[in-house]
Design goal:
Methylamine Dehydrogenase, Chain H; 3 helices; 5-stranded mixed beta sheet; mainly beta; 35 strands; globular; disordered N terminus
Length: 509
C-alpha cells in the first residue's frame, strides 16, 4: 500500500461498539451502529468474550471473511447480518471488475456473502474519491433499513435483505448505479443491494469532498444526523465550498433535507469534515453534539421535522467550545506541514455521557502540529463556553484521531504515538500509558472487563479495563488494523485492511 493510500484513510479508524440496550435500533445483543446509541461511547455489556485468539491454529476463530486489500471501516452487526466496507481487489461478482468501493452484507453465522453494494469511483481528481480504498462509512441499521454514505458522497437507505426479496423502490436504478460512467446498466441480481432512496450531497447541499467519505449516521426517531465531509480541494489550500454546511439532518423515510448548521465552518476547515455527531440528553432535553473541522465542539437543539413542503431549517446552536482557542483561526492553509503551529481539527467522535462531553482534538495527522488533547466539557452551559466549559484536559504529545471509551469511572484513549492511556473520568488523572509499539487509528473498545485495540503495526492488544496496567494478550495479524473492534452476540469482530475475523470463546479450534 502506498504512503498516500495509507495517509488518506486514517479516519475510519478514528474512533474509528455490543449489547447496549439498543431496542430502538435492533435486538439487544446486536451492534447496529458505530458506538453506543446516541452517546457514541465505545463500550459493550457483553461477557464471556475471548482473552486471546490465534488465526494460524484457528483457536477461538469462528470464521473469517476477505475484505480485499484496503479496508478501513468498522463492522456493525444487526438482524443476523454483519456489515463492513471493503474494496474490489478480489471481485465477488465476476461482472463487477475494476476499482469499486463495496459495502458487504455477510451472514452473521458463517461470514457468507448475502449481498453487496458496489459503487464505482467518482473518477477524475483522485482527491475526491481516493482510488482503491474500501467503503469507509460504517452503516447504521434500524429494523429492515440500512443507512450509510457511499464513496460518492451519497446518503443511501438500503433494504436489509438486498434484492433477494425484490426491488422495493422507490429508487429503481440500481443497475445503472453499479455501472461505470458511460457504460450500460447491469442486470440486477439477488446478491445486489436494494437502494430505497438516495441523496447526492454534492447536489443537495453543495459540499465539496476531499480524500474519502467517512460518516457514521446518527439516528434519533425520524431524523438522521450526519457530517457532510466538506473539505479542501487537491491543493489542500482552498475550500471551494466555504458556505456548505458541515452538519445536516435528513428525514429517515425519504432523505428530505430537514435542517443544516449555520456556523459557516468552511473557511476554517484545515482538511475535511470527518467527525460524526452524538446526542446528549440532559434532564430530558436532547442536543446534537458535533466536532467541527475547525477544532470546535458545537451543540445544537434536536431537530423536529416540519411539513414536507417546508424549506430546510437552520439548526439552533446551544453552545460552542473551542478545544484550541490559541490556535490559528484565519488563513489556515498557510500552516500546512507546520508541526509546531497549526489550527486544530476534530477527527474522532464526541462522546456524550450525562452532563459531560469527552472529545479528542489537535493537529491534523498529516498537515498539522503534533500536539493533541482529550477534553472533558461541561455540557450544561450555553453560549460560547470556551472559557468556562472545560472541566479537565489531558495533553498528548502526538496526533489523536480515536474516540474515547468510558467505563466504570475510567476513560481510555489511544494516540498516534502508539500509546493507550487510562485516566480517571472525573478528574483526568492518568493511571497508566501503555506503548503498543505503533500508531493507533482504531478507537479502544471496552467489553467484558477488557480493552480491545488494534494498531497500524498489525498487533491486536487485549488489556484489563482497570486502573492497574495489566496486559492480557497480543496477537500479530497479517495486515495493519485501522478499524475499531465490534462486539455483538458473544462474538468479537476484528478487521484488518485485508480480513475480518469473527472471534468467540471456543473449547477447540
Amino acid at each position: 500500500m502506498s504512503r498516500f493510500t495509507s495517509k488518506r484513510m486514517w479516519y475510519v479508524m478514528a474512533g474509528l461498539a455490543g449489547s447496549f440496550a439498543l431496542a430502538a435500533l435492533s435486538h439487544a445483543a446486536d451492534q447496529p451502529q458505530w458506538g453506543e446509541r446516541h452517546t457514541r461511547n465505545m463500550v459493550s455489556s457483553e461477557t464471556a468474550l475471548p482473552e486471546s485468539f490465534d488465526p494460524e491454529t484457528g483457536t477461538n476463530i469462528k470464521w473469517t471473511a476477505p475484505l480485499g486489500d484496503n479496508a478501513y471501516a468498522s463492522p456493525v452487526v444487526a438482524s443476523g447480518k454483519v456489515f463492513i466496507g471493503a474494496n474490489n481487489s478480489q471481485p465477488r461478482d465476476p461482472r463487477i471488475d475494476g476499482d469499486y468501493a463495496v459495502l458487504l452484507c455477510l451472514n452473521e453465522a458463517n461470514g457468507a456473502l448475502c449481498w453487496q453494494l458496489a459503487v464505482p469511483r467518482i473518477g477524475g481528481d483522485k482527491y475526491l474519491d481516493w482510488p482503491m480504498i474500501g467503503m469507509c462509512s460504517p452503516p447504521t441499521v434500524e429494523g429492515d433499513r440500512v443507512y450509510t454514505m457511499t464513496n460518492r458522497y451519497e446518503v443511501v437507505c438500503l433494504d436489509i435483505d438486498g434484492q433477494a426479496d425484490g426491488n422495493d423502490g422507490p429508487y429503481m436504478d440500481e443497475g445503472q448505479h453499479m455501472a461505470l460512467s458511460g457504460q450500460p446498466a447491469f442486470e440486477v441480481t439477488p446478491t445486489d443491494a436494494d437502494i430505497i432512496w438516495l441523496v447526492d450531497l454534492q447536489a443537495a447541499v453543495g459540499m465539496y469532498p476531499h480524500d474519502g467519505a467517512h460518516c457514521s449516521i446518527l439516528l434519533d426517531g425520524p431524523v438522521l444526523y450526519l457530517n457532510t465531509c466538506n473539505g479542501v480541494d487537491n491543493t489542500h489550500a482552498v475550500v471551494r465550498k466555504p458556505d456548505a454546511p458541515s452538519l445536516i439532518a435528513l428525514d429517515k423515510e425519504t432523505g428530505r433535507l430537514l435542517a443544516q448548521d449555520g456556523e459557516r465552518i468552511g473557511p476554517r476547515i484545515f482538511h475535511s469534515t470527518w467527525s460524526s455527531p452524538a446526542i446528549s440528553d440532559i434532564n430530558g432535553i436532547k442536543h446534537v453534539v458535533f466536532g467541527g473541522a475547525d477544532g470546535v465542539v458545537y451543540a445544537f437543539d434536536a431537530v423536529t421535522p416540519g411539513p414536507a413542503d417546508h424549506p430546510a431549517a437552520t439548526m439552533n446552536r446551544v453552545w460552542r467550545f473551542d478545544c484550541d482557542p490559541t490556535g490559528p483561526k484565519e488563513n489556515v492553509s498557510q500552516y500546512l506541514n507546520n508541526r509546531e503551529i497549526s489550527p486544530s481539527i476534530i477527527e474522532s467522535m464526541p462522546v456524550a455521557l450525562g452532563n459531560r462531553v469527552y472529545v479528542t482534538a489537535g493537529g491534523d495527522i498529516w498537515w498539522g502540529k503534533k500536539k493533541s488533547w482529550l477534553k472533558c466539557i461541561d455540557a450544561t452551559q450555553s453560549g460560547d463556553i470556551t472559557g468556562t466549559g472545560e472541566l479537565w484536559s489531558f495533553e498528548m504529545q502526538s496526533h489523536c484521531c480515536t474516540t474515547p471509551a468510558v467505563s466504570n469511572g475510567l476513560i481510555f484513549v489511544a494516540d498516534c504515538a502508539g500509546l493507550l492511556h487510562c485516566l480517571d473520568v472525573e478528574t483526568g488523572q492518568v493511571y497508566w500509558s501503555h506503548d503498543t509499539g505503533r500508531e493507533v487509528w482504531a478507537s479502544p473498545m471496552i467489553a467484558d472487563g477488557k480493552v480491545y485495540v488494534g494498531t497500524r503495526g498489525k498487533d491486536f492488544w487485549v488489556l484489563a479495563a482497570d486502573k492497574e496496567l495489566s496486559v492480557i494478550s497480543s496477537v500479530r495479524l497479517g495486515a495493519p488494523i485501522s478499524a475499531t473492534a465490534t462486539v455483538a452476540n458473544g462474538v468479537l469482530y476484528v478487521a484488518t485492511l485485508e480480513q475480518l475475523y469473527a472471534i468467540h470463546k471456543a473449547t477447540s479450534p
